[in-house]
Amino acid sequence: MTAGRVVSAPAARVRAARPAVHRAPGRWAVLAALVVLAVVMLFPFLIVALNAFKSPAEYSSGNPLSLPKGLYLQGVVDFWNRVDFGEKLWNSFLISASVAVAAVVLSILNAYALGIGRVRGRLWVLVVFLVGNTLPQEALAYPLYYLSKQVGLYDSKLSVILIFTVIQAAFGTYLLSSVLGRFPREILEAAALDGAGRWRALWGIVVPISRPTLSVLLIFFFIWTWNEFFLPLIFLISNDNQTVPVAIGVLQGEKMMDATMSSASALLGIVPAVAFFLIFQRTLTRGVTVGAVK
Amino acid sequence: MFRTSRTAALAALAAAALALSACGGSSDSGSSGGGSQGKTLTLWHYEGADSAMGKAWAEAVKEFEASHPGVKVKFEAKGFEQIQKTAGMVLNSDQAPDVMEYNKGNATAGLLSKQGLLTDLSEQAAKRGWDKLLSPSLQTTAKYDQRGIMGSGKWYGVPNYGEYVMVYYNKDAFKKQGIEVPTTFDEFTAALDTFVKAGITPIATAGAEYPAQQIFYQLALTKAARPWVDSFQLYKGKVDFHGPELTYAAQTFADWVKKGYIAKDSAGLKAEDMGVSFIGGKFPIMISGSWWYGRFQSEIKDFEWGSFLFPGAQLTPGSSGNIWVVPEKAKNKDLAYDFIDITMKKEVQNLLGNSGGVPVAADPSAIQDAKSKELIENFNKLTTSDGLAFYPDWPAPGYYDVLVSGVQELINGTKQPAQVLDEIAQPYNDNLADIGN
């Protein structure tokens, strides 16, 4: 939900990396800085991975940074069984995937009207979307709770899917509207001359050309929804509906924390998101640079 | 081309997921309420399966199913945070469980009772004899008045276990310095001095969380009597923050830091750091709660350890553990009462005691493990002498953080004890005004 979700950075890096091979010492400084940054970023993951494979006694007698003596898998296995992790994975996947698809569809429909259709008062509509996007989730919790109780969706996955579809689509609409605002008119005019209606122009022209942006949005929506904690915590009451982050929260006791099992759960929790990212990172690097005339 | 087809495949997959979840969602909301009336008891608690409570309550579930043929127990393990954040909402919906563990105290169980979300258990407590099993200081957290303040009024919860603060000590380190277990406050400070002289910081604590403020409160309690606790915790009188109790506590705590009993760098530590450093043998003494007991039993391998009650104090921080509550919207209240009753029985309580917990109604002779015996005997000593004084952060909402920063200032020496007392008096008195005292 933060402002830092601009997606073009990886694309920029790829472009910058190519000519680097031949050039000079300054580049090495940049490389060194990037390596340091990468180490800093990876450090928490390293600690999690180290402690996930320690026994609780080993953790307590050494320190968080000591290397595990052997591979202690019981923490991972115990956590998996305790929360029925397979079911949680499926729930998370179901919710994230549904939200990602539905939010992208909703965003493109909204953005078509706002960015290309140029409906009246579109600026204000966008401002409203932006405000909706910046509202803290804590403020939404109670109204949504009463609404979902009224319509009988409290404690169901559908309630979370609907809520996040709207939240993510608010951001998607905002982003896509500005992208489509610069969509080349000539293409649309050409399509109109060929007899394509608005509906046809959307699905036949705008969507195929914007596909890279749409896939990036899809992936980000998936990962963001996957990592959501607060609203799923409130809306997914029964254990059979819970998502991965909520299940990880089960380990945080009142006064006690089980550091090794928490690490094991954190590892299990991030692995799917990292895997998803790795599989689709090529799509991500295409960035949001659309609108070029073909 | 490859990329395009993959995105298309993903989209198709996700669309299928959406369709699936759409039907899943509606059927879920219908079925999880326990449609088969009187046949399923829904139980929620948030204790780990390996903890003393987890083991004992699993046994209680077995006994319950044996004594109630045809009734199934649907147990859901919850997270502490989830219950804290969502209890009010869940209990106000038809998804409420039949019986659940909940935090004792004015801000939690008290608040829910005031909102009418909890069932009045007074009649059951009298009928089933819970009021006789539990000592008065344990009943304090079970009863709440119309304002939601604990200590009097109706029964809204039933505590099943207890907890209290004690002094954990490293027997090997004590032996090495030739120190006997202290029985008076002077002997205790003499022992601390001996360690300091030998170049060892004696007390492990953590200023960023509850441990340091519990030492502070324990010090105040060495000069306090029951009426002072009733004033401080139950608002039965006025608390003078510059009176002898708290002045002594602040002054002594600051002195302890100066004398090197408490390390200066402990201001920023968390409870987990404290526990790990004691387990690692880096400090000979740790003053904290019985919730560490089970973990120490299983994780301390390199030295002998033991525990004693804070020397020279009649009162000790401690209370009942969390309580069983029955939501007002529970569908099977009679089954819930039966379940609570089973958890109070000797067999379940003894199992709780033998697993490293503090039972409230066990048979001390049935506890085999020597360490567990020590733990429970000390607790029974406290309850029979009415020595549980609750925790310092209870009286006002958000008071925990006030105390954390106050005690941190004492450790860092950034403020004088008197200034710190002014600082912690303010929010306390504001709260009194809020509740109309």
Notes on the structure:
The complex is a heterodimer of chains A (294) and B (437). Chain A is mainly alpha-helical. Chain A contains 13 helices and no strands. In chain A, 38% of the residues are buried. Chain B has helices at 2-31, 52-67, 80-91, 106-114, 122-127, 130-133, 136-139, 171-176, 185-197, 210-221, 226-234, 244-258, 271-279, 293-299, 333-343, 346-354, 370-384, 399-412, 417-435, and strands at residues 40-45, 72-77, 99-102, 143-144, 154-155, 158-159, 162-170, 203-204, 285-289, 305-308, 318-320, 323-325. The longest helix of chain B is centred in the N-terminal third of the chain and has 30 residues, at 2-31. Chain B is of the alpha/beta class and 437 residues long. Chain B has 2 domains: 40-161 and 321-362, 3-Layer(aba) Sandwich (D-Maltodextrin-Binding Protein, domain 2); 163-319 and 389-435, D-Maltodextrin-Binding Protein, domain 2 (3-Layer(aba) Sandwich).
**Biggest β-sheet of chain A, characterized?**
none
Report the largest inter-chain contact.
A-B, 53 and 53 residues
- Radius of gyration of chain B, in Å, reads 24 Å
Helix tally of chain A equals 13
Percent strand of chain A equals under 5%
CATH superfamily of the largest domain in chain B: Periplasmic binding protein-like II
Indicate how many domains the architecture of chain B comprises. Answer: 2
Instruction: Please provide the count of β strands of chain A.
Output: 0
Uncertain residue segments of chain A: 1-17, 288-294
Radius of gyration of chain A: 23 Å
Q: What is the CATH domain class of the largest domain in chain B?
A: Alpha Beta
What's the N-to-C terminus distance of chain B? 74 Å
Structural class of chain A: mainly alpha
Give the ordered list of helices and strands of chain A: HHHHHHHHHHHHH
Please give the share of residues in helix of chain B. Answer: 40-55%
Classify the fold: give the CATH topology of the largest domain in chain B. Answer: D-Maltodextrin-Binding Protein, domain 2
Shape of chain A: globular
- The oligomeric state is heterodimer
The CATH architecture of the largest domain in chain B would be: 3-Layer(aba) Sandwich
CATH superfamily of chain A: MetI-like
- The CATH architecture name of chain A reads Orthogonal Bundle
Main location (chain A): membrane
Transmembrane segments (chain A): 28-53, 89-111, 123-146, 158-180, 201-226, 261-280
Pfam families (chain A): BPD_transp_1 (PF00528)
Keywords (chain A): Cell membrane, Membrane, Transmembrane, Transmembrane helix, Transport
